[in-house]
Amino acid sequence: MGRIRLLYLLTVCLVASGWVGLAAQDRYRLQPGDILTVTVLGEPDLTGELLVDPDGFIRLPLVGSLLVAGFTLDDVQSKLSSELSKYLRQPRVSVALKQMGPLSRRVYVLGEVKTPGAFLLPLGGQPTLLDAIGLAGGLTDRADTSRIRLIRSNGQSQTLDLRATLSPVGVGPGLVGIGPGDLIWVPKAFITVTAIGAVAKGGLIQISSGGSLLEAISAAGGVTDPAAIVKVFRGGVEVLRSSWTEVAQEGFPGFPIQEGDTVLVVGQQALGITLAGSVREPGVYDLGGNPTLLTALSRGGPLDLQTPLKVRLLRAGHQVVEVVWDPTAPTPIAELSTPLRSGDLVLVEPFLIRATLVGPVSKPGTHFLRSGATLLDLLAKGENIGVSADLSSATLVRKEQSRQVDLLKILWEGELDANEEVHDGDVLIIPTARKVWVVGAVNRPGSFDYLPNMTAVDAIATAGGPVSAEVADLSAVQISSGTSVRTVNLEQAFRGGPPPIEPIRPGDVIVVPERAKAYVYGGVLKPGAVRVEKGSTVLTILSQAGGPVPDARLDESFLVRVIGDKPVLLRLDLDRALKRGDLSQAPQVLAGDVLFIPTRRRTDPGRIIGLGASVATALFYLSRIGQ
């Protein structure tokens, strides 16, 4: 009666409280998809509605791109006033939130609510914890109102007792404000386990969430054989074996029982097959004759044949066989014909589990997975992963406990041991990344904290700047945002010129490439790598290599170029190109080309041998380039 009365009072609070009328716009931080109304007094061209784009920016004449995601309306108004003051005298600017974007208003309510899932917070006012539970249809009669978890979008979490909401002290936990991206987890007040064997009332029993082994045995009416052995199975694996005498002792540690556990009490005189799990009549059966798995399943009551199931045969604590019962596949006759022995345990488990994926993915929400699915299987259910997803700081919520998991190591570093199996009811939360990555020809490549208004120039400077103007090609910097890549020219910004406005967002990867290089070997003053720029020819790189030595054979030069993984040799007469201006002998150079100039004149037979030696030498240098 106390629980029913509490649920009734909470429902009354949900109806009576409505949406608390707090003027929350000054606290709200803008998100992509929001629509702003910007008014600049006396400037109709600067007045109108602006959409916060997926990058978190708005675009306004005179101002250009301005990062607003993560800032309050007052912040944006101040920033706009500051930028416009460069062009207008004392601009009078006002900014209002016309509409929040759908993703900005999403909150997740999971666990023991009537319709768990993702919900859109209404516009205006400050929604509360009770409001969000109301959106999910209210609490079920199994909800534990004393241990509700509130996990903020920034990863911080707290446990709240809704019973305190109704206390006469004033505003309680139920009126705590919530915001976009928050997750509310309502745990069960009790769990369901199976207790079979030498107990007074075997079958499915319910105990309080976090209850102990003794509590489960007590709920089953107690042990009928003082000499019995107590076993606990979890997920088909024996996790405890002890005599009832030891379990009943005062000093026995309280063994916690979890949802779906099977408590098997084996009496000294008990013989037969134990059937547990997703069957109508769990218990110990003396099947007689030559029983098989199919015999045991038939005796235990009809299964839900429309749902895939996993049947495990355990013998002496070890799994003997595992059978998948899938209505869409042929019946596994051979496996179901496995003979049973007295003392065997047949455990039937649902083959499909439900797990929830939360965060910047295309399809967040609760998904059905086959038993044995892993974290990456759940991640795949979300289909496309947003560019702002911080896979290295994901959170796994399991049975009201949460811990951090690094999905990035699983994906990119192949740490498959960390790709653990997903359990029924798990919640995987992927936060929004707040870092950018700078790689390539910079002094300190790596990841760096994203800062408001950060540009590509800021990020490269944070990474220690380019290695040098000779090495880093700042004219072709690449900025990767998810599946899109853009190339920008930042050369002037690092030569003292005005930095271009190249905004970046969390999760972006900035690549500073090295300048293109070609290689000159043989009869030149400074053999080695030289820079290749647009329009560079063989004569250009010859000059960069210091020019030919006195005995250089310019008329027998070779240009080696790799085409389709195969080296192609082009014979050149650079003497003719220099003296007669024949540019057909001085083609344009591409990155990776090798120019080789021999140095000795030979007689005709010797020239043939020299030609082969020159080619071999050029190929040798070409093979050394990638080392």
Class by SSE composition: alpha+beta
**Beta-sheet strand percentage?**
25-35%
Oligomer status: single chain
The low-pLDDT segments are 1-26, 602-614
Quickly count the helices: 13
Rg over CA atoms, rounded to whole Å, is: 36 Å
With strands numbered from the N-terminus, the spatial order across the biggest sheet is 7-6-10-8-9
Euclidean distance between termini CA atoms = 78 Å
- Share of residues in helices: 10-25%
Q: Could you report the average pLDDT, rounded to the nearest whole number?
A: 77
Using the alpha-carbon principal axes, give the shape.
flat
Largest sheet: 5 strands, mixed
Work out the number of β strands.
Answer: 35
